[in-house]
Amino acid sequence: MALASIPLSWYLIVAAALFCIGLYGVLARRNAINILMGIELMLNAVNINLVAFWRYGSPNVLTGQVFAIFVITLAAAEAAIGLALIIAIYRSRDTVIVEDIDMMKW
Amino acid sequence: MLPIIFIIASLVTLIAALRVVTGRNVFHNALFLVLSFVGVAVLYILLEAEFLAVIQILVYVGAIAILIIFAVMLSRRLMEKGESQRNAQGWISAVVVAVLFLLLAFMLAQVRWPTSLAAVPANSISQLGQSFMGPYVLPFEVASVVLLVALVGSIIIARER
Fold first, then answer.
1. Cβ of B2 and A9 within 8 Å?
2. pLDDT for A59-103, tens place per residue?
3. How confident is the model over A13-60, as pLDDT tens digits?
4. N or C: which end of chain A has fewer CB within 10 A?
5. A56 domain-assigned
6. A106 part of a folded domain
7. Chain A: residue nearest B114 by CA?
8. Beta carbons of A9 and B108 less than 8 Å apart
9. CA B132/CA A69 separation, integer angstroms
């Protein structure tokens, strides 16, 4: 694939945009599952960054892809535990709106 | 040709992501999240990381998005329409996020990135496997333990009492 036709900064800007969209999702949403989806978007943005730097930096050493695979693995583990927590909270509080889960608030 | 594919894939990814973080229906947001993940997989293919693109579809779309849809279904309330999904700091976080993106984009467009013209090795998947069993065997084993802990932990947390 012609590497010169797409400059590296384009990938990085797309990744930055995706990261900022995910960040808005984490900061500004009320449903816990919406927040978790924002977290997954941020992790995807980080992965795009890693793979872009791998391809344009040192494509003969596969460290960038290895790092991205570890990020995917940990994102899966974190999503599983986060969703288990959300289900458990829903069972006991009957809500997933994070503003209403304020038992520990003083 | 390739820049056009890149622009289409990025636009699909970003517009789907915007729809995820601004939608009102949680289930629809999860479906647009799937679209966003597929867009990211297309970007991986453009970056010549085909194995990673397939792993992205398998793990993110096939496991994580399905898990999110399960959780949406298991935490449904009877009357969910009508309430806004934006919390008290909605507007200020939009401003902060926009400023952050402008800062990042401005900086990223200005840096003269050093680019290597080396080619991707033809046996990249074999090299990936060897690096998991070679230099990165310790993080690999730790990741296996993390997955085991996450598996057992999520079963215990979400168990019926």
1. no
2. 888 999 999 999 999 999 999 999 999 999 998 888 888 888 888
3. 999 999 999 999 999 999 999 999 999 999 999 999 999 999 998 888
4. C
5. yes
6. no
7. A57
8. yes
9. 10
* Partner residue opposite B67 with nearest CB, options A9, A10, A83: A83
Chain A residues whose beta carbon lies within 8 Å of the beta carbon of residue B52: 51, 65, 68-69
The total of structural domains in chain A comes to 1
Interface of B with A in 32-51 (CB under 8 A): 33, 36-37, 40, 43-44, 46-49, 51
Query: What's the ipTM?
Result: 0.92
Residue A43's SS3 state is helix
| Mean pLDDT to the nearest integer, B81-109 | 87
CATH code of the domain in which A87 resides: 1.10.287.3510
Q: Tokens at residue B110, please? A: 């200005």
Any idea of the CA torsion for A55, B21, B75, B41, to the nearest 10 degrees?
A: -20
Q: Does B25 touch chain A (CB under 8 A)?
A: no
pLDDT of residue B79 exceeding 60: no
Looking at residue B113, its pLDDT comes to 86
Domain containing residue A62: 9-100
Query: Is the overall model pTM greater than 0.90, yes or no?
Result: yes
* A16 in a structural domain: yes
Tell whether A51 is covered by a domain: yes
- Which residues of chain B lie closer than 8 angstroms to A2, CB-CB? 2
Residues 6+ apart with CB under 8 A from A76: B59, B63, B64, B147, B150
CB A83 within 8 A of CB B76: no
For the segment B111-149, what is each residue's pLDDT rounded down to a tens digit? 988 888 788 888 889 999 999 999 999 999 999 999 999
- Select the residue of B75, B115, B158 nearest A96 (Cβ to Cβ): B75
Q: B24 touching A, CB under 8 A?
A: no
